[in-house]
Protein 1
Amino acid sequence: MFPLKDNIPTQRFPVVTVAIMVICTLVYFGFERGGLSLGETGNERVVEYGAIPYEVTHPGDECGATADGQIACEGQAGVSGTAPDQAPTWVTILTSMFMHGSLLHLGGNMLFLWIFGNNIEDSMSKPRYIAFYLLGGIAALAAQIAVGPDAAVPTVGASGAIAGVLGGYALLYPRARVVTVIFIIIFFTFVELPALVVLGLWILIQVLYGLSDIAQPVGTGGGVAYFAHIGGFVFGLLAIKLFAQRHNEDYERHQRIPVY
């Protein structure tokens, strides 16, 4: 199941949403030197500017890549020496939100941001939207760190912050219609589903996979940060009413019951 577009037109051009998409794209191709996947330069940038839970929970101890491509951190059992200079931890909390691990990772995140972010931006002032987006990313990272405080795997991607946008959208526009492509083995079809169904299924999948990761850890090689998605989504649900200021009449018009 993959969403393509919703049926709520925006009342203003989504300047901030587009700016975030442009920044993420420039960071991936320019700063990380990414292509279909990351090369050596990109992997080095991820280690230096990605958010590593161990560095957050162990202030002053830094992590770095070893000769065999693994990540070791100062203070870990069996680790000696010092790591190369890294970006300050507080900086990586922000920079990690604009970095991605592959072209598919980038493309999927930007599609979700474009579909749902423009309406959330429309519901509040631009400064409020920027704050909502960044706080959602921070909440997402906090949730991921809470589950694995000693993890030495860099967390990168806009998906945690975007999950906050999805949570806000699910609460503000649950009856919006979302054009969705449904894959059935080698076939696919297009259907219109309520946003609450699409986003409800999305967060349910995150919860199920997150619980599966806890029950059967896959090791330290990285993967999807499911609990970041969950944390961001919960933040969006809880915080959207504190940030949203504008009432979208187009949404109400689409959902209004005709009176004859």
Protein 2
Amino acid sequence: MALFLSPGKIGGMTLSGDIQRAAERLNNKTTLLVSSGAGISAESGVPTFREAQIGLWERYDPSQLATPQAFQRNPDLVWEWYRWRHKLISSVEPNGGHRAVADLEDLFPVVVVLTQNIDGLHAIAGSSEIEELHGNIRRYKCSDACRGEPTLIDLTTIPYDDEHAPICPFCGAHVRPDVVWFGESLPRRALDRAFQLASQCDVMMVIGTSGIVQPAASLPVQASQNNALIIEVNPEETEISRLADFCLRGPSGEVLPELVQAIRRLRHQDGKDPSS
């Protein structure tokens, strides 16, 4: 049965006290997976998919822009929209939740981030093992994958502007963002690794995701079936809550730093703190 925790007191318990109990369960684990969704980045001010539809873009349906067919019909329009979204994302910084996830690498032998986010904030915060299941808006590739999938393109090496999709220097096809569009499959290597790790991990921490977007929503199920400890960090109840051993109800930028500090205190008491 999940232990539901929320800010303030519930049944005489406090969120901090329950974070301490979660830390105690985590203390002797070795392989930690972090599955993150839009919620952790929303705390940094990253607009959601539909929130980016402002100004000139209000009249467009984003689900009709983020498709291979839309790019084929009008590559410049789709390129311009993604360059607009890139500018929105470029103005934000990782928050305490992202940084705490990176700090977990000092405490566990294996920490891998499985993220549905395309903003790259986990890497900027310092996480080193990341599988970006939906791609990264900061990367670009040849739309024809002329040298294999993906054929990554460094925009600094080719002429381009924000209003016209650039041309692949290798084959002449248009360059597109390295993100997963509607109707496309997730990167096979990343997805296979994610499910393999989910079947082997000691702990899966699910942060800021509704648990309804497949196939990422199946990762906690896979981990739970293999007796992993499931910790959810989310202000709201989700589809993941019924699987979780701990549901920490609060923003990741507040909950995760406290959880990291609680683990460090335990390690220090045990003489295992790597920073001591």
Protein 3
Amino acid sequence: MDRYIYRSGKLMRMQGDASVPEYNITDLVKQENHVVSIRGCLQTASAYKLSFPFFVSGPGVTYAHIPIGEETVDGHQCHVEDVIIHSPKNPVVVHFRFYEADDLKGFPVKIENRREHAYPWVIHYKDVRLGPTDPSLFLVPDKCETTAGFKKTGAGAKPKTVPSPKPR
């Protein structure tokens, strides 16, 4: 799916071409997200999925960079490297292959999932533009509902059963 993604420092905005305008603004440092639409605003205590892999950071996270070589992707000469990420919060080791465009100051125009035993996927970034971003793209309403008060429901929870009456 095509999406529009904007970044300014620690903030990312992700939006699609939906008939109902909606966008997400993720703070990569605070690891929180605001979903903004004509229906309202909702603040969540986690980064939005489309800010991945940029939100994979934090205290104790370590990165191994393994140079692979060079390749051309969509007309961009790229340095290719494998990046292996270890996080104390996640026992699963994350393994990506980044195709970093020289003409875009190393921005990854292509990212591949390289982890074994995982669903293979590829992210392609097109029409990447570097430079100042309009700050109004990252504004969120003053009043936003929060998911803090929502009650979690367990998957597979069984409803209470009442014994049926004995037949006569």
Protein 4
Amino acid sequence: MHPDTNLVIQIQSFDQKITAFEKEIATLPKHIAAIEKTLDSHNRKLEADKAALSANQKERKVKEVEIQTHEQKISKLKDQMLGAKTNEQYRAFQNEIDFIQKEIRKAEDRILELMSESEPLDANVKKAEAALKEEKVHVEQEKSVARDRTAQDQKWLDDVRGQRKEALGRLSPKTVQAYERIRKKHSGIVISEVVDGRCSACQIALRPQYFQQLRRGEELMFCENCGRFLFYNPPKSFENGIAS
């Protein structure tokens, strides 16, 4: 095997690790954004529940004020009834009092309805507040884990990039150019093992003379079909448990 072959294999391994780290680093902010979006959705739901409860309470206050106003009117009308001089005046006052009392009963009925509606609204708000509090803690924990993981991945990424740079420096410029060209063409799969006389990447058989040349390991060689670097590991024979 040519001495540079192991370097090419090593550099390919570095590139695969770099790709994995870069992918994970890019994914983590998306993960944070997703959980924050969920939290924002729950926040909006809580605000809607609070708004509904607040509207319920405001309407109850309005109805209570209406009842007080109606009762004051009835009190005045009753005082005025005492001064009625004819039956028609008396009946007019009475009719107006009856009408206002009906309005009071309507307001009281509506208050009862609002009180009945407020119980589940209040329960929803309390439940949502408790759930949101727990979720905020969970989200902060998730964000902390994601930030720590990103920092660790970035450290590893920098380390691997440094090792890759050092390994590339041990190859000739011509080999480096060939490596980068093949990596771009074949999505990072730069070197392929020859198994049973075939390139394991494209499965095309090598010419016998070319295969023999590869086995001698005197130079870096490329697959004549797919263009990848080639390497060959000769099979080991074992006799009596001892490698020969």
